[in-house]
Amino acid sequence: GINMGLGEIDGENAYMGGLKIAYVANQQFEVGFASNFLYSEQDIYNNSLSRYEDLIAVYGGLHLEPILFSKNRVNLSFPLLLGAGAVGYVDNKFRHDDDFEEELTEDDFDAVFVAEPGVNALFNISRYLQIEAGVKYRFSSKIDLPPTRITRINGFTAGIGIKVGIFNMGRNRYKKNVQ
Predict the structure, then answer these.
(1) For residue 15, which of 98, 95, 105 has the smallest C-alpha distance?
(2) What is the pTM for the complete model shown?
(3) What is the C-alpha separation between 42 and 179, in angstroms, rounded?
(4) Which residues have CB under 8 Å from 61's CB, separation 6+?
(5) Are 125 and 133 in contact (CB under 8 A)?
(6) pLDDT digits over 72-129, tens only?
(7) What residues contact 162, with CB distance under 8 A and at least 6 apart?
(8) Going by C-beta distance under 8 Å and a sequence separation of 6 or more, which residues neighbour residue 1?
(9) Contact 163/144 with Cβ under 8 angstroms?
(10) Could you write out the DSSP letters of every residue in the chain?
(11) Higher per-residue pLDDT: 67 or 95
(12) What single string gives the DSSP state of each residue in 76-123?
């Protein structure tokens, strides 16, 4: 699946995109791997570099999602992502200058652990296509990056996504019709 979302970190807009690969067990529980990319227009001034910076984060990990009402066209699910990643700042000049290239080092990033529970409505469009819409809350470990007023990337994200796969929608592919 692929998803995108809009949220907020420290009062500023945050944009998120994600990918996930999962196995759906008995149409009731999804288990797999998910990864997310987050960008937030923070415009934090860095005195040592004399520039304004924005926040970026990349994290991924174990994806668990119990699914209720799995035999219906509309399902309710409770996704949970448990994982780790990196958070850092980048010069916001790249938004305005196509020729700008920034050299990033390991000092520009800090490790972060993330737990991201949520609630989704899943819409079965066809046997191979599902659309999801929902809300998640991101809990993170503390980060320590200069120049920061942000110590965590906690926050709500509302998003939509699309899942492609084989969704049986209540059909048993192994059951034979006997006449």
Answers:
(1) 95
(2) 0.81
(3) 66
(4) 33, 34, 81, 82, 83, 84, 114
(5) no
(6) 889 999 999 999 999 988 876 655 555 545 555 556 789 999 999 999 999 988 888 9
(7) 1, 2, 3, 129, 130, 131, 132
(8) 19, 20, 22, 130, 132, 161, 162, 163, 164
(9) no
(10) -EEEEEEEETTEEEEEEEEEEEEEETTTEEEEEEEEEEEEEEEEEETTTTEEEEEEEEEEEEEEEEEESTTSSEEEE--EEEEEEEEEEEEGGGGT-TT------GGGEEEEEEEEEEEEEEEE-SSSEEEEEEEEEEEE-----SS-S-----EEEEEEEEEES---TT--TTPPPP-
(11) 67
(12) EE--EEEEEEEEEEEEGGGGT-TT------GGGEEEEEEEEEEEEEEE
Comparing CA positions, the residue from 7, 52, 26, 18 lying closest to residue 163 is 18
Q: How confident is the model at residue 149 (pLDDT cuts 50, 70, 90)?
A: confident
